[in-house]
Amino acid sequence: MIPAGYMAKRVSARPEWLAAGTVVDVCSVSRCVSKDFADYIPYWRHNGYWFFDSLEIIRQLARDHSLDLAGTSAFFYEVHELQFDARATRWAPFDPEPSFPTQVVLPLETALEGYDVVTFSVGTSAECSPLSCNSLASEVETNRHCLLASLELARQLLEAGRFDATEPGPYRIFAVYSVRWP
User: Fold this and answer.
1) Contact 50/41 with Cβ under 8 angstroms?
2) Which pick of 50, 55, 160, 176 has the fewest CB atoms within 10 Å?
């Protein structure tokens, strides 16, 4: 797994339309259900994985642009080094966008919340998390955060075609960690 960076999110409770009884809230990487702290891309402070190299960069961005971080949760992400192309049914390497420096500062403490599978049809920022966005969590077992229990389970579900009828890929697997704001 490769350190991909940090994000501040407004974690949402399970939406009524998501028929997954074990899900309490949605800690997905995508911003479809649980929103990012801001539409951050126009500020051009993200790294090549389209996250942030540190929580301090997020705080500085919030200060500089009067962005409200109240009520947000901080997350750290690692990404699997290969992405899955469902059409070709193969794993392939990918790289961060080289025009953005990527120097992720590793967190001192983390709590693993689970694994998410995220679409990257454009190849830049995270798009959809089919477990929540497409209600796949109502068909496959997820934890209380609408995430998978293991990297291996995510790989197995992708290779078995469970994500094929959701959103266009390729698909990337992320480890989702909660971190404390410093």
Assistant:
1) yes
2) 160
